[in-house]
Write a structure and sequence with these properties.
53% helix, 24% strand
């Protein structure tokens, strides 16, 4: 079974990653794809705050590294994928292209009014993904 987890370095993202690792641990021959999307809208701010391209790449990798280590320590075969673009669109494309069987994603915890006005990555992914999606709050 191919499981993917979308992480962004947030607490909800880490909780989602922990859930995905636990899920993969109990499924025979499960693999885990750890997906991080560098949001184009936030990328300019990140570049301004970093001193150079290497420090920017290191900052992004530090958001994913704890999840990779958690998977390794649980004995799960995991791979890390860094994508660029609109997070919801990139996650949906990745899930389809890689034939992911199950996606785990964190929720930002927006209330229903905020979600109706702003939308959220997890809401858009659930709506458009063609595989089961678990949202971890």
């Amino acid at each position: 079974m191919k499981i993917a987890v979308a992480v962004d370095g947030s607490e909800n993202g880490l909780r989602a990653a922990n859930h995905a690792v636990t899920l993969a641990k109990y499924l025979p021959e499960a693999t885990l794809d750890i997906v991080y999307v560098a949001d184009y809208d936030k990328a300019k701010d990140e570049r301004l705050l970093s001193q150079n391209a290497e420090s920017l790449a290191l900052t992004r990798e530090q958001k994913v590294h704890p999840v990779v280590e958690r998977a390794k320590s649980a004995g799960i075969q995991a791979k890390m994928t860094l994508l660029k673009g609109n997070p919801s669109q990139e996650i949906i494309k990745y899930v389809e292209k890689q034939s992911i069987d199950h996606l785990v994603i964190g929720s930002r915890g927006l209330n229903s009014f905020q979600e109706m006005i702003l939308g959220s990555v997890s809401h858009k992914v659930v709506k458009h993904a063609h595989c089961p999606v678990t949202i971890v709050k």
